Amino acid sequence: MKIIVENSTWNNLGDGFYQFSLYELIKNVFPEADVYFGDGPVERAFHPNQKQLKNALKSIEWQNADLHILSGPMVMALLKTEYKAAIENIKRKGSNYAILSCSCSGLDGEPLNQIRKFLKAYPPIAFASRDPETYEKFKDYVPNAYNGICTAFLVNKLLKVDTLKLDKEYFVSSFYRNPEPKFISDKAKPQIEDVTLKERKGYIPGLPWKINRHLEIYDDIAENLGDLKIVRTVQQVSNKSNNFNFKYPNSYITLNPINFLSAFKGANFTISERVHACAVTLAFGKPARILIDSPRCGIFERFDLDHTSNDRIMKPSTVFFNKIDTEMDLLAKYIRESCEALL
Fold this sequence. Notes:
This protein is α/β, with parallel strands linked by helices. The chain is built from 13 helices and 15 strands.
């Protein structure tokens, strides 16, 4: 059996966290299969305009396997990208596809109904959500739906990741949609609960953030908090503006998601508005503070992590690590049993 696992849309390196883990999980579930990396949609990775898109070779529509595996928040964009054409091609050829570790990210209303209809017309052989909301919204519209997990939580179980070590201990700060807050503590080497946050408005208060974020490089931003270095992981990779990429001291940017993970593995803790930055930090055994309230935070609910209280600070525990083991085994069993007819 030939299997293609989508693993390419790394303009957001968080995609690589769950895609690489899912790829390794699939190899473990199907040791007898030939498992390959596959491309995702051009739109998802590069966001071309319509004129540019006409010149793109949409390789996802030409990939050929017995089983194609898609993942991530792609459900909400199913009818807007060439996922639709790719799935239609897969079913037309008599092949199968699975949607695993997926999210609809708050999808509702008529767009939700349209995607439900599409999935009923072109049903996946397996459908595993990564948050309870997605499962509840699609369990009655796809066969054999499973209330699964985000495979980003499996990075420390399935991937070989080095540990970043610097000249001093550090914590990770990762922000994209809002200015990084000012970090304050009276401790020489603060723990995550010792850090107070003060809101920043950007370099020029009142200016829209989409402009202000490119001017932050001119602001005076601290490199350290007490004896801790502040490492700023730049997850939304783009070469359009290095003023954005390197706007803060100790900005860490790379095109390799596995290398990127090493920063979270070596950190004392993470403070971020990125759900996957916090997820992998927890998976590496460190506390994390998530500063957004979004349907995407549902990935924490699957592990009984409270992301709403205690200043939104989450800490890993023995129970958490045991649940990772249990949920990984259950997901693997579900995938194997769902695809048993292909073996």
